[in-house]
Amino acid sequence: MKLQVFQVTPSVWCFRRRSYLTCSYLVRRANGQIVMVDAGMDSSAQDVRDALARAFDATIKDVAAVLVTHWHNDHAAGAQVVQEQASAKIYYHAGDEPELLRTTASGGVRGWLAARVPEFGPLVLLKGLLGEATPRAVKADVLVNDGDQIEEDVMVIATPGHTKGHVSFFYEPERVLFAGDALAVIGGNLRFMARSVTLNLQDARQSMRKCLELPIEHVCPGHRAPLSKDVPARCAEMRALLTGSEHWPFFG
After folding, report:
1. Would the pLDDT of 158 be above 80?
2. How far is CA 217 from CA 139, 142, 213, 226, 235, in A?
3. Is 176 strand, coil or helix?
4. What is the pLDDT of residues 161-190, one digit of tens each?
5. Average pLDDT of the chain, as a whole number
6. According to the model, what pLDDT value does residue 197 have?
7. Radius of gyration of the chain (CA)
8. One-character DSSP codes across 11-23
9. What residues form DSSP beta bridges with 223?
10. Which of 127, 157, 229, 234 is at 20 to 30 A from 133, Cα to Cα?
11. Per-residue b/e over 56-74, b at no fewer than 16 CB within 10 Å?
12. Whole-Å CA distances, 128 to 118, 164, 201
């Protein structure tokens, strides 16, 4: 469960657990404010605390905003604690609001099982899917839409497919795409997300195309590792793949 914290660009740091390689990100903007993209898979937000301390010698109270790509608990689990302890502004899309507010939360046997799945390791996604909601309800301060400009220098890209309300974020000063689970990075190449966790393949394909049209220099995905080498070429390869075939690989 050891937490990994490492720098991606002069402004951006990644934190992830080795047990599942879910990536969340910290951005220190030019004005000194800290913005998070996703909030880790630990509902106590201890991963967030440790990452802030190691990256910026900061605390949760220093976080100004959390940009949530989608409701799955491996990405949104710590958001409620950060909002509560930092008064951080929460941004997400209305399409994922029911799960993030837990109005969809399972009861009965499903809810009982979800509560007992640990927040680490290969079963962490099952925890959210069984529970049909994030572990702690978090209310948006701002419901975002495609093309919105937020926190001055971040553009919202609506990227449904993995979930109904999935969004990605483009950090314009360093041309960083925070892709969430709209794109995968595997072995230094852009790839599809696994078919089994892609809710709507047609929407997801269109979302990938939309992301790949941006002037990206760094891709920060929701899993494994960021991509910063030969990014324009990797984007061109994936655009060609999307154009040339309708096939969606089962494992991505």
Report:
1. yes
2. 32, 27, 12, 11, 10
3. strand
4. 999 999 999 999 999 999 999 999 999 999
5. 92
6. 87
7. 17
8. SEEEEEETTT-BE
9. 22
10. 157
11. eebebebbbbbbbbbbbbb
12. 11, 15, 20
| Distance separating alpha carbons of residues 81 and 84, to the nearest angstrom | 5
Q: Which amino acid is at 156?
A: V
Residue type, 204: A
In the chain, the amino acid numbered 66 is V
Bridge partners of residue 4, in order along the sequence: 16
Placement of tokens 């990605």 in the chain: 168
Q: Please tell me the distance from the alpha carbon of residue 35 to that of residue 40, in angstroms, as a whole number.
A: 14
Alpha helices in 18-166 (DSSP H): 46-56, 73-76, 79-86, 97-100, 108-116, 124-131
Tokens at 169, concatenated: 């974020």
Residue 118 has pLDDT above 80, yes or no: no
Tokens at 199, concatenated:
């809710």
Average pLDDT over residues 127-148: 87
Phi-psi region of 59 (alpha: psi -120 to 50; beta: other; left: phi over 0): beta
Q: What is the mean pLDDT of residues 63-75?
A: 96
Tokens (6 digits) for 3:
């937490």
Q: What are phi and psi of 9, to 5 degrees?
A: -135, 175
Residues 6+ apart with CB under 8 A from 85: 45, 60, 61
CB atoms within 10 A of CB 238: 19
Q: What letter represents residue 165's amino acid?
A: G
